[in-house]
Amino acid sequence: MKSLGEFIVEKQAEYPHARGNLSGILAAIRLAAKVINRDINRAGLVNEILGDAGAENVQGEQQKKLDVFAHKTISAAFFARDDVAGFASEEEENFIAFDSEKNRNAKYIVLTDPLDGSSNIDVNVSVGTIFSIYRRVTPVGTPVTLEDFLQPGSAQVAAGYVVYGSSTMLVYTTGNGVNGFTYDPAIGVFALSHENIRLPDDGTIYSVNEGQYLKFPLGVKKYIKYCQDDLPSEGRPLTSRYIGSLVSDFHRNLLKGGIYMYPQGSNYPNGKLRLLYECNPMAFLAEQAGGMATDGKRRILDIQPTKLHERSPFFVGSRKMVEKVHEFIEKNPD
After folding, report:
1. 132 annotated to a ligand binding site
2. 221 known member of a binding site
3. 283 in Cβ contact with 152 (< 8 Å)
4. For 126-160, what is each residue's pLDDT tens digit?
5. Is 302 annotated as a binding residue?
6. 117 is in an annotated binding site
7. What is the pTM of this model?
8. pLDDT tens digits for range 298-324
9. Does 83 count as an annotated binding residue?
10. Which domains does the chain have, with CATH numbers?
11. How far is CA 50 from CA 41, 79, 114, 121, 133, in A?
């Protein structure tokens, strides 16, 4: 059994970014994931971490108590180290500049969705944590600015997620493939369980909130009908699977092959998912595993963000499936 820490040390020669400070950031994420995992697993027994927090986040969404807990846990894990100059969270309107001298000298900033799919937590459905790491672009030794956070996804040096499900897994990339580690609570270690994950070129699963079907663009509607066609000779109909937690849906499709879609709609003309906290890290993982991620027209990792909580349509998964939905979108412009 190879632990996450051992794996990082072993791969330092191959992963030019996975040295020193970046290894420390991954260690902080590992620690935060253990704490969040512990509290998620006893959420039904502890009232103070279950249910609504009584406030809305910057997107106008009702925060759960575990959203707030996860945000504070991750922020504290980064602040306790010298490796992070700044931190941005889906749960906060503005980024946080860690303004001590040690943090101003750090080279990296981190963006995170502390608890993706938190609306599922009260009914014991899988949720997750998403993270994205960049080198800062402002001079080391000065406080970070918004410029450090508004970088295209192609500038990521590492990204990943933790899925809290029937088992807890940490999946990440530093730009040299994707690897997964399963948490063994008996010894408190994330152990390598899925080495060099490859996303199948094609798949049989499509993941989309079909309850929003009438609000989708015409091309997406026609692609969904294509997936539902009863044509066994062509491998259809495909299987519809939608959990409502991006981490959980993405993780299943990453291992089995499939496509996840959250298009723009009449209720979300710019899409719903956040570019910096959700789309960019998942797109980085998908491409590193051999898949594809777009907004329906452009490669996600090429998009230049203009604001911290920018939204985007999102199509990610097996390359052939993403290319197929593109065909429908191009042929059926709204």
Report:
1. no
2. no
3. no
4. 899 999 999 999 999 999 999 999 999 999 999 99
5. no
6. yes
7. 0.93
8. 999 999 999 999 999 999 999 999 999
9. no
10. 4-194 (3.30.540.10), 205-331 (3.40.190.80)
11. 11, 26, 16, 8, 29
